[in-house]
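Data availability excerpt. The first of two example chains:
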Amino acid sequence: MRLAYRHQDESEDMPLQITYPDGTVVEHPDGSTGLDVASSIGSRLARAAVAVKLDGEMLDLSRPLPGDGLFEVVTDSSDEGRSVLRHSAAHVLAQAVLNLHQGATFAIGPSITDGFYYDFDIGRPFTPDDLGPIEEEMARIIAADQPFIREELSRQEGLAVFAEHRFKTEIIESVEGSEVGDGKIVSIYRNNGFVDLCRGPHVPSTGRLKAVKLLRSAGAYWRGDENQPQLQRIYGTAWESAKALEEHLHRLEEAEKRDHRKLGRELDLFSFPSELGSGLAVWHPNGGMLRKQIEDYSRRIHEMFGFDFVYSPHLAKADVWQTSGHLDFYADLMYPGMEMDGSDEYRVKPMNCPFHVMIYKSAARSYRDLPLRFGELGTVYRYEMSGVVHGLLRARGFTQDDSHTFCTREQMPEELAMHLEFVLMLLRDFGFDEFEADLSTRPEEKWVGELDMWEEATDSLKAALEASGVPYRVAEGEGAFYGPKIDVHVKDAIGRRWQMSTIQMDFTLPDRFELEFITPEDARERPVMIHSAKFGSVERFIGVLIEHYAGAFPMWLAPVQAIVVPVADRHEDHASKVAKSMRDRGIRVDVDAGSGKLGEKIRNAHLRKIPAIMVVGDSDVSNETVGLTVRGSDERRGTPLGEAITELAEAAKPPR
């Protein structure tokens, strides 16, 4: 929304018409600041405020409101308020580094999820020993309660201010100058002689930063481009209170224990051999079994929802990607082409959709054939920059549980509702029960298709979300140029939010590939296309699962579901017979026939996070019993073997 700025010929003493969130319109004197309005509502609200919004635009508390509009107070405990705190803390970090390191230059310092960072060039890497003095200097700046003062400069004035800081001048000179202004005017913030280039807003003064902590340093390329200079990045976090900071640091400790890369090594699930290149995993037997259970589940539930399985190759002629538009919009993430068959160029696929389109085109289609639902566990390859590759969560080779539905316009609402039902069922089966969604709508400028089709598709997505009861936010204008979409997010066991499944409308590929079906009136019409990846990617989904469960998977997913531990060598034959009886019932079981002591074997089974442990000794051999320990419960001695196996076989069944 655009702010209703006052024209110069309007009377300066004309009161502002400020609309509160409840719809009440209140007059305030011209020149009133955001803090003035917040204070008039309530002193507690004013104390918690860090910024305000007027018709959706974020403004500093001290900035006079530029016109009439919808007014909102941004408090320090809200997501937007925490972002303001963190952005302000990033400026204090930059000020501290420049105070301590003569000749240092600084680049960018945004707020990010749960924290902030700033990139610097100090002529050498930061070390852990650098962070303490920097944090002390930040504490001194915060204690001084220095005010953040906003100024607007011409482009040339901005270049003069930052003449000794190449990264700042590059921002001003580039087309991305809109990050800090409109290209002609740039905004800066000063506090106690320090000046930074920034759009804002910021807290009124450094003293509003109550809980700031530096976390680590790392290398980072300027603008994320490995062909640009490597800078040194310092990460930190900032919260509205010491208690909130303490809770966050505890979550970080827990997250470190749950890191899927660490657990992947400890549980022998997968590895990333350097000889293969960055971002390419190989799956070990334990990981292979885990992955098989997940992929088998995917196939079962896709079949249950009426999808047909298809398969496609890993590469195709570049012409296919030209037609689909990927070469125009996606070439940087595609691996370079190779010439084959004389002059034909081939590309490794970054996605599966053009192949499914080809399957649709392979025959004449009637309205009687629709909906057509194609599903594939298709491996794709994308060139992610080395700085963003992160274990299974951001890999260069990964498998999507990709589906594409082709339907009539009339079938679209029902198909979208079915997809959302599918997604929520799948996520619940894997142990997630807290959902949120983003509904991304038509971009304001670049989009394809018919306006009424966009509106109908968006309304259908909204109706599906409302029927599901999943809380959602409307991300205005954030849809892809080819259609609106739903992104489903989950919260894991320690409260982190993960984007998982996507349901995406597509109005461009049916046009680009000239897809048609015959209507009941014997006319030709374009089908509607729906993309959906329920896991997103199998690799990323497994990475999230590992961290959600801390590697202690539910029985049906565990690579090894039970282990039989003989008390002594003389019990090994009986342990093997017990294991065979369990395998006959479909239980994945190992026997620990090693030479260690019983206590060591049990500890090892716990370290392997095996859900069930069976101990067999002399009395168990003679009585056909076992000592049974199932994760989360105490050991039960003398459990009849048949009863124990039946119990585990039931627990080991996959959902659906």
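And the second chain:
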Amino acid sequence: MKRIPALALTLASLLLANITWAAIFTVDIAADDADAHDTNPGNGICADALGSCPLRAALEEANATAALDVILFANGFSDAVLTLAASEGPLPVITNQVFILGESIDAYNSAATLLRNAPPQFTIDGSQLTFSNQNGLFFNGTGAADSSVSALSIVNFPGTGIVVGFGADNVLIDRSYIGMRPDRSAAGNGGHGIQVISSDGSRIGKRRIGNAFQGLGNAVSSNGDSGIRLENSDDNQVHANLIGFSPSGTSNRGNGQYGIHITGNSNAIGDTVSDDEAGNFIGANDLGGLLIIGNNNLVHANELGRGETGGFITSEGDGIRVFGSFNFIGNNNGNGNKIYEHDGAAIKLGVIAGSQANDNFVIDNQIGSSGSLFPILMSGNGMGIDVANGDRNVIADNAVINSVTTGINIRGEANNLSGNIVGFVNGLFGSNPEPNRDGLMLLGADNIIGSAANPNFFGGNEREGIRISASGTRIEFNRIGVDRNLNPIGNGLQGLLVFGPGSIIRDNIIGSNGLNGLELHLADNSNIANNFIGIAPDGSNIGNSGHGINIVASTDNTDIVFNNIAFNTASGIGVVNNQNMTGLDWFQNLMHDNGGIGIDLGLNGITPNDLGDADEGANRLQNFPVIESAILDTLVTPPTLTISYRVDTDNNNADYPLTTHFYWSDIDENAQGRFYLGSDFSYNTPNAVEIITYDFVEGIFGGWLTATATDGAGNSSELAARLMFGELGEIFFMDGFEN
């Protein structure tokens, strides 16, 4: 046994260091005919009938020995083309370990750091072959494990360019053009570009050694099926390839199916070390960029829909489509995927009424390109992220902009969304809208949107920021219509539109939207609490251009509590009075500076009380309290406010006892309450005068008083017409009354 010479070690890089071999065969002729076979396979000498060493003979000789053989190419080759003869068929199936090193040709640019600067100097052309199962190179069986092939152009085969199959584990394929000639012209193979079948651990493209990458990727394009197909194969690595592009990354060289098609587990497509070193460029393929059917696959740092040197290329189908569980699409190390210009979704999980994708992670991906500085660069997808059928997926820290339809669409249950920015980007001079049609569409139950530590941002979208058509949704801690600094970046219609019962909507900031902050339809048994609607937590104006909350249809038994609602163009809470909705219970909501009254049952201003409260409508048109007097005593410490009031509602028109909530304002506003003062929970006798006293903060000398009444079934009234008390000239804001 000999050692590989120093020159060969340089060409094969670190993988060949200190590896022994059986023989080195140097291909010295690009010819194929009946004389191209090895005359004596197994004697360690590559020689055909004419004394030359064609590639066919070299492979026959390599198959004859079980130990590693190395196939080099003579330095005299430059743009050589080996056209296989139809009479001889495809090259021999490779059954023993071999390194096929096209980079050994002197004319090959081994120093190149970019694939486009290192075209192969030796092409294997299968254009004369006619049967669909005739492939370019076929590494078959466990004996062919740990083989490698580099720097070849493999074109025009009726079958697949390179096949790795049936136990041929740990094969390396790099620096090659599969389906493309060295001059970058298309010459696709009829099947896949590269196919790995029931084999594990192969490396297609750059190889990772520690935390660094060596070699170059492959250009895999213009093939009839998928560019790269991993079939029933695990633990393979696909790094830094150009799939569907020319090596320059600017020309459409799409494959006929997917860029990459995986059925298997724990494969790595791209890597977290560096997107410049490890990510693949995938685009222009007929069915989509990447299809995964399996579990625990990693998809990091790839760019889909854009070539290596820039420029978007429209791609059919979805960017990344996933069936399976615990797949990681992107990561939280700043090396997510960038996905542009797909007709379908950038990322799709599952299929409607079909296979599911559960428990996956979609993290830190850039979906759609920004045009904030250069509008010509704006490039989105048909949809951003589409959970078409999937539960318990985590979708976090993605930027989703410029989608033709929805930014994020969720059909499954118990998915968790946090930290996503949907519909805008942060530019040099503030936030700029980069609209999706809708920000988020929820069509599945029990999803959780937002968290205290990592809120979502929905702003700048053409229609709704969030649209819910499902039950049991939790919308928490989000920013809807404002950016991270609470600057306005409103959605075109509602901030949040709800069709569905049992929603919990709390601790959100909703402002600057084109219509209502929040609109409810069919939202029975919901809870809306602790939101800032039209007003920021610092008190600044981020008003919505409609109601703060608009309740339109069939929404019963819903609590609206502890919200701050201000600066909205219409009322704070508006209720359409064309349906007999009941159980709308609101209390301790702080309202001021709305264009309409604080609470409007019927959207017609203050609805006068009727005798005995016999009329019907939203919340049974519960009569509001009549405040007969409010006496402020500033001579005691603390000052006290004694309120005398009554509610004209008969027993048969409301469930008793009633609860009365009192609010105070330091500005003259009709039927709005800036501060919560207190409650009386035991009003038991219709139209009886009740007297209640509250302590006031010392230094308050007057204001305006209003109140609501709520019956035992949760039917709340409008705010009462305001009553002035005290000395007006001495009124000023006191933090102690802010709820």
